[in-house]
Queue: 4 jobs
Job 1
Amino acid sequence: MLISAVALTIFAVIGTAIVSSTDWLTRDRIKANEIAARLKQINEIMPRQLYDNDLLHDTLTLPAGAITDRYPTTVYRARLAGKSVAVIMQTTAPSGYSGPIKLLVGILSDGTLNGVRVLKHKETPGLGDKIELRKDKWILSFNGKSLHNPEKDLWKVKKDGGAFDQFTGATISPRAVTQAVRDSLIYFEAHRQALFDLTPLPVSTIEVQETKQ
């Protein structure tokens, strides 16, 4: 009986160790896959030859209210030979037709958009989901634009008197994305230096509100 009890204990310890090791390896693999996927998404709008820093570790987080009312924004800073090249904002358009739309917005140091991509959404298939590049080229219409090209008051869909197309039967989705990109550009213009600083000062609620007005 004693031998059996000892054997069971040994097997239990070994089993626990195997499960723990497997769990650790799985978590490690998932994390590595997530990092690779995020880099691939970023490199679609900010090609690797434009920066040489460890972009995923050169980041800062803007609090909810800085760009969108309910969601924080992660900012990746791209640098080349120590010089600031661009920021990639992982932000959220809160007013999609079926919920929030997560975006990557790539802004060069001169304020020009290098690209925008949709990361996650629940928009209507065949209508609002055309905000995805794999469904439609609409998202490419932001390339090369800036807060002054078109002018700030034209950063709306055409149905609202702006410069950007909407989709047939779907206005809310492109409207939400266009507004989120515009808000990102407004924030960038107001806080350009702080976004690139290695030790940026925190942005106060007052500054955030003034930026949005």
Note: The first helix runs from residue 2 to 45.
Job 2
Amino acid sequence: MTLFDTALPARASRDLSDDAVHVWRLPYRRGEGRAPLRRLLAAYLDTTSDRVQFHDGEHGRPVLRDAPTALDFNWSHSGDIALVAIARGLPQLGIDIEVSRPRPRALALAERFFAIDEHTRIAALPDTQRTDAFLRLWTAKEAVLKGLGEGLRYGLHRVAFRLVEGEPVAHAFDGPVGPPGAWQLHPLARPDFTACLAWRGAPRRVHWLHMTES
């Protein structure tokens, strides 16, 4: 199981090399908006959170505006957890998280949004395994599409995966997302959430981090 190392953002920011990706787990409260993201990025930019400004891309993806240092990031939140991926020189970077909870409509959603083969494979699983399989595929698809800078309207069925020993493996991609082999995937499943980190480019080291107070 992947463990999150406890760290201070300001200290960790100095260790962000060009061959690494930092992924932070942050507490998230409904109504906070982008405040947790702004505070974390401020440490990497060596500035104050009120000076971290965003503009939204074509599909609503936040991008830094007038940042003193080039920094690529993506974030996702679900329930009371947020995950933030940070890197340098990695513009096609995406992450997605879904907290653990009952998903009675998982099979119906897979039939509506997934590739036919994906839905068929989920339907063949025992009821107790369907939600886990659905979330692993859903978060992998979302992470890739967020890295691409597209939303759901791109079509989740156009980025198809297979589950190999429970882990999502890119199988068939269609359109500008490019070939499956161009993407790196780092899925993470824990008792309280399922997530996936994705980027287009060469392999990098991934550091999973959890913020400490001091």
Note: The mean pLDDT is 93.
Job 3
Amino acid sequence: MLDGGVWEKSGGKPDCIFGLHNRPELPAGKVAVLDGPIMAGKINFRVTLRGKPGHGGSPHKCVDPVVAGAALVDGVQTIVSRSTDPQDALVCAVYSLHTDAPDFFVPATLTMTGSIRYFRDAAGQRAAERLKVLAAGVAAAYGCQAETELFPQVPVTRNAPSLAEIARRAAAVTVGAENTVSPPPDMGSEDFAVYGMEIPSFFYWLGSGYPGRENAPWHSPQFCTNDAALPLGAALLARSALLALECL
């Protein structure tokens, strides 16, 4: 939307912006208001390992990128456990492995994808640099070549201090102070963060779970939203805008 000129098309940048996302772990009727970081920044990555393909019965004539890939998956775990300050929240994980060969043959390439999630920009960049060094070193140890590609996705979603009091008042009016909560930040990522790089922004979590039962998390096949949350979300954003007009 920013690339499409949303500010220009709407008459200029607003003074601030509010947004929300459902939170199935919270029952409908609850609103989460957090100061500072609420959701993580994210860098996606793709590592391609190139070996020498051949017949599965002649591994000595091949260079198998699958073996190198298995070692690299293990190595990636050390980015958090051995290369990151324990005080820093960081996720660096591999989520898919793909080869270009049919079953039972040694492939020419293996491609792995994953992501780095962080709350401190410096920690995210350090993890990305460490990934490149690990990929090159592990590949060389197994006779392969490595190509590491980094794809920055979104920055950290940070709630502006100047909007914190407005957000708390809006939540209290909408659902009651007793239903306004402050759980820990989450390592999920949110593209709403891009707005916050240009203007003060505040992001809520809107409870969307059913009380008295375990609710499936985001991106689960069992995910189900409690529709009772919908009018509360609309009211929360409307109240936030009205209070911002009064206070800013």
Note: The chain has a mean pLDDT of 97.
Job 4
Amino acid sequence: MALTALWARGALKFVVSQNCDGLHLRAGLPRRALAELHGDMFAELCAPCRRVYLRAFDTTERTARHAHGTRRLCHACGQELRDSIVHFGERGRAAWPLNWAGALRHAARADVVLCLGSSLKVLRRYPRLWRMQAAPRARPALYIVNLQWTPKDSVAALKINARCDAVMQQVARRLRLRVPRYRAALDPYADADGGGGRRRAGSACGAACRRPTYSGRGNSCMCVPTTLSQLAVTEMSKVF
């Protein structure tokens, strides 16, 4: 929630996450400000339609490495949906939720990189996120918050050995930042398959959303276009 508040103030421009739990979206961060590099366990993708279905349940219960079919079908084209998870040894290509284009675009012009809680053992394999090809003085200042050692400690401008929650509470207090409370009404997953037949803002299916989902868990879906140009203008982004 503190990151959402920092983004709303304009101090934070973009979040790159290694987590797959969708908590940044639940906290109110818009998709255009987020890259989930390893996918979202609550999102299913239709490759032909380029649609994303947000679910209120774990979509990976029947999937595995190199076997991403979820056995549910797209409402629009009838093709099998796939989870969005990127396992070790795989290379994710989905425009969203991975959003590599957004991550690299913001990394190229960032002046500060704040790493919260990450071991950085995986992210160190992505040198363009750190602008490692640039001269040291041209790279963004790196600040790390972690209880453990990380491979980037020696090049960090500052390393804080503390819990992320404690540090962000201090940051919010120092900046007099009003951290919002979680609001289920703005949670894109809250009623994604709640069975109420409602369509939340940003749904791109139109009438197709009224058809039953193939999961058998309700009538509403949260499918949205995944091209980055469309993501910036979806109604979904406006509710945050």
Note: The helical segments are 2-9, 23-26, 100-109, 127-130, 164-174, 228-231, 235-238.
